[in-house]
Amino acid sequence: MDQVPTNSGPPPAAGSAHFFADNLKGFLLAVASSAFIGASFIIKKKGLKRAGASGSRAGT
């Protein structure tokens, strides 16, 4: 019978570095996304405050 090799050992060092790089990319994308969402919220909030201070309302 043929024996099928099993992968029960630790991953090779090159695979480990690749895994770390993928995790780092994902983490940086998550941080950048959070920063853009936060900046968008701040810009919207300032715009709404400015529009409210000017006194003009939609539909009137």
Automatic annotation (TrEMBL):
<dbReference type="GO" id="GO:0005769">
    <property type="term" value="C:early endosome"/>
</dbReference>
<keyword id="KW-0812">Transmembrane</keyword>
<dbReference type="Pfam" id="PF05653">
    <property type="entry name" value="Mg_trans_NIPA"/>
</dbReference>
<protein>
    <submittedName>
        <fullName>Uncharacterized protein</fullName>
    </submittedName>
</protein>
<keyword id="KW-0472">Membrane</keyword>
<feature type="transmembrane region" description="Helical">
    <location>
        <begin position="26"/>
        <end position="43"/>
    </location>
</feature>
<dbReference type="InterPro" id="IPR008521">
    <property type="entry name" value="Mg_trans_NIPA"/>
</dbReference>
<keyword id="KW-1133">Transmembrane helix</keyword>
<dbReference type="GO" id="GO:0015095">
    <property type="term" value="F:magnesium ion transmembrane transporter activity"/>
</dbReference>
<dbReference type="GO" id="GO:0016020">
    <property type="term" value="C:membrane"/>
</dbReference>
